[in-house]
Amino acid sequence: MKYFFSAGEASGDLHAAQLIAALRKADHMADFAFLGGDMMAAEAGCDPVIHYNRMAYMGFCEVARHLPEVLGNLRRAKEALAAFRPDALILVDYPGFNLKLAKYASSLDIPVYYYISPKVWAWKEHRVKDIKRYVRKVFSILPFEVDFYRRRHDYDVEYVGNPSVEEIALKIENLPGRGNFCEAHGLPADKRLLALVPGSRRGEIRNNLPVMAEVAKRMDGYLPVVAGAPGIEPEFYSSFSDFHVVEGATFELMGYAEGAMVTSGTATLEAALLGTPQVVCYRANGSRISYEVFKRVLKIPYVSLPNLIAGKEIVHEALVHLCTPDIVERELRAVLPGGDKHAAQRLGYGLMRHRLGSTPAAATTAASLLSDLSNHR
Questions:
Q1: Which residues make Cβ contacts (< 8 Å) with residue 181, sequence separation at least 6?
Q2: Which of 111, 247, 305, 362 would give a disulfide with 22, using CB separation of 3.0 to 4.6 Å?
Q3: What pTM was estimated for this model as a whole?
Q4: CB 208 within 8 A of CB 181
Q5: Full DSSP string of 292-325
């Protein structure tokens, strides 16, 4: 069968690549076209129609500034979809773009599936209407989404396991060893590492790294190390801190760190699965007004994945004007080894892992997708 994928950012490229590999194993005649990145290209055996680095525009202002490119990408994607005529269109998050593509696919009678649901439970819940209208089935990687869709919208989604569980288990097996890691990155092997993970976008780094750096300066006995994001030059980090920057090794850094300050995102889940003590930092512009807007716009009690999955606070979330050096320092010291919240956070991590389960997400999704296509032919 023929499959068309659409993933608009780096994490989607990784997860979609795993699903492509799983479909190849299950369907030896599989043929692919896709919007995505290098990892998908390696598994699909062809180049992307559009690389995600030309699609990764997030937020209203950024999309508005690049509107001609966004519209051009959508037009090109529709043309490729119509020419390829796949048996299924598989969307990976990235809802602003992907739901428009889903509508077009439906007009061509192409079945549409979602692997990794948009975060409609957090904001823009109205998008569920389009999901119900255009998407045949959602394969969820977060267990609480099943209840959200069913109870609030009378729409069944399938929890297929979380791909990060497999990815991190494999990465842990292949960690280079602490000494080798330190040597490769010019770090002294006898120091306790403190990971500063300020996000992958310039705005996130600009807002969060100064707070993290101030806390790190107060942590005697620890060596602060900044996790560099792809595409961000080292000079950008040096304008906010003089700490060592490790590029392309965020996972390894968090794995060997005694503790971490992490901007909310997938990295918070990775740190939790690694068992690394952490505090979530999300400064944004730091104003109380922004915090009040956040509280009203967001429809969830927490913003970090570990807390959402566990259903309670296991990681402290220092948000907006409450993301101050004093608060972050207090909470970080509490979860480091010997701190009064260290044991509770470790128990919380265990609860989170239990709820995620151990189901192989990509293989389960491939089997379910093929079954659904066969039943509706």
A1: 175, 187, 249, 252, 253, 256
A2: 362
A3: 0.84
A4: no
A5: HHHHHH--SS-SSHHHHHHTS-SS-EEEGGG--H
CA angle 199, 201, 206 (to 5 degrees): 80
In the block, residue with structure tokens 């807007």: 293
How far is Cα 184 from Cα 311, in angstroms, rounded to an integer? 39
Under 8 Å between Cβ of 68 and 56: no
Neighbouring-strand partners of residue 139: 115, 158
Residue 29 region by backbone torsions, left for phi larger than 0, else alpha for psi between -120 and 50, else beta: alpha
Cβ distance 321 to 287 under 8 Å?
A: yes
Q: Which amino acid is at 14?
A: L
pLDDT for residue 289:
62
Among candidates 171, 168, 186, 206, which has minimal Cα distance to 353?
168
Kindly list the structural domains of the chain, giving each domain's residue range(s) and its CATH number in brackets, ordered by start.
2-161+359-375 (3.40.50.2000), 167-356 (3.40.50.2000)
Does residue 197 have a pLDDT over 90? yes
Q: How far apart are CA 157 and CA 131, in angstroms?
A: 11
Q: Cα–Cα distance between 66 and 60 in angstroms, integer?
A: 10
Tokens of 270: 């990775």
Nearest by Cα to 263 from 310, 309, 303: 303
How many Å apart are CA 234 and CA 176, to the nearest integer? 23
Distance CA 273, CA 263 (A): 16
Whether the CB-CB separation of 265 and 199 falls below 8 Å is answered with yes
Give residues with Cβ within 8 angstroms of 75, minimum separation 6. none
Q: Could you report the per-residue pLDDT of 282-316, keeping only the tens digit for each? A: 987 655 665 555 555 556 688 899 999 999 999 99
Angle between helix 342-356 and 325-335 (nearest 10): 80
Integer Cα distance of 240 and 208 in angstroms: 10
pLDDT for residue 246: 95
**Residue 107 near residue 336 (C-beta atoms within 8 A):** no
Q: What does the block give as tokens for 268? A: 């918070």
With beta carbons less than 8 A apart as the criterion, state whether 141 and 361 touch.
yes
